[in-house]
Amino acid sequence: MTRNRLGRFRIARWxxxxxxxxxxxxxxxxGSAGEAAPAAAQWPPVSxxxxxxxxxxxxxxxxxxxxxxxxxxxxxxxxxxQVPVILMRTQYGKAEAQIQPFRYQSPDWFASQCYLxxxxxxxxxxxxxxxxxxxxxxxxDGYDSVEWAAGLAGSNGKVGxxxxxxxxxxxxxxxxxxxxxxxTIVPANTSSDYYDGWNYEGGAFRLGFVEPWAMGxxxxxxxxxxxxxxxxxxxxxxxxxxxxxxxxxxxxxxxPMHPENPAVAPWYFDxxxxxxxxxxxxxxxxxxxxxxxxVPVLDMEGWYDAFLAGGVxxxxxxxxNGGTPEARANQRLVIGxxxxxxxxxxxxxxxxxxxxxxxxxxxSPVNELMxxxxxxxxxxxxxxxxxxxxxxxxxxxxxxxxxxxxxxxPDTRWTTYYLSGVGGNGIHGRAGHxxxxxxxxxxxxxxYDYDPANPVPSAGGHSCCGAGTGPQxxxxxxxxxxxxxxxxYTTDPMTTDTEIxxxxxxxxWAASTAPDTDFTAKLVALAPDGSTMNLNNGIIRAAFRxxxxxxxxxxxxxxxxxxxxxxxxxxxxxxxxxIRVEVSSSDFPQYAPNPNTGEPFGLSANSQLAxxxxxxxxxxxxxxxxxxxxxxxxxxxxxxxxH
Length: 643
Fold this sequence. Notes:
alpha+beta; 12 helices; seven-stranded antiparallel sheet; 19% helix
């Protein structure tokens, strides 16, 4: 069955399902999505200021190597001593400086600690000149801006950088350029590769993040920068009703981004045209260039963040391949119970009841830890936050912080759970099972139909840029699991408390009637009362099963082994709780639904039904591999700033 639908799919029905999902209580740890958010505390707090008074200079010019002038606000501490520089390079407005919602302290606060703080608008954004293009100028401009900042009056020549999301990308790209005066970076919520784990995942386009974010932030702000107020107003109106656009096909004709006008968002259409990890993406990839990065890194990530997997890869890549012994030894990774913004702070109005239930223990320590980090590497003070690689992680379900010296954790026991039984809604209901015994007897496969026009609605997940504007965070899976195109496989109740911390993989043997399709996997915690909470998820586009660079079609009807990377998590599965894996072929709008046609991405509105077969027999042992951590529930509710 083929459909040729230019325009919108049945988005209204999906919107109703998504609204229903959002009203479900958000997980096994209690709380209700209907609870009122606590009154917001003052942010940023005024306590903890340093001894230096501060003067602010606005729109200080910096000329790049090609003559384009970027503008920065400079916060100068009143001191006769030369002091280090803390630099933020942002596309989100230097006046905002990523303070809200409940994230960083103000630049003025950091300057009061006797640092020279510089917050710069990147090229083509805010007050800075030039033409904006995502990723394209931030390696050279980052290098030039670091060296310019190091030469400011009052600087001692040492520069550290900080910032979240794309502002983390500006740090990594600058560090790849290895400017001589860059001494350390503190990126948060950012990735290792801008194809894999940013715009795409497992070959699938990350629709629910990319479209609203690109429309409502960078496209609108770059329009304002070039004086096109009409387009900026239109884009902000469109993003205010972004769900009406998520079903639009074909993507290459997406009206809000004006495909007919290359001044609006040519970079967005480049992302669609480059649907594989080709040279367009490789020119900016961090994962390919760790040996060029020669500085210590403090990396902050969240278990439900859009870029968690890339942040973890940056840590492991730098420990293994960083450009100097000092850089390899001084890597610290912090992973908390956060999504992309808000960072768990009570009163932020961001996040979910599970995150709120963590209380103060789950608040991001970024400001205190970042200050201690800068004091050590820029001022030579302290000495208690470095010397060897450190992983600090929040164990959800126990609401405790724990620490390790490597990722994956050194004592990980990789435990295989095999799929068996009836995973779908059959005459005997759902009886899909996860067990440690490999399948021996012949078992009939599970079969379901995947219709791209009626995809499985996203219920939480790792996305961006806030639980109120996208499928993000922990959510009860009840609504999703009622569908006939979602298979479930569940363990027996745990007999003891069991910690699961690390990356997860589903080795899925499956066949499809289509020349290309998707398979999705979601790890879920199941409480004794039947409530569920997603821990993390993953996807693989069948054509990308062997390579992100060179996709190839599948042979309809043939069984293949698909290795689906479920992004990392850390959760204490208490005695009596169970673990479940959901298997399907869509997760909308987190990912663009695969049309099952095998046509080039984004050029057509065609789609067709696919019948999917999931095998779990002795010849096709589909299995979930979990990182089980031995030992009891140790750790502290207080974050360990020093080690």
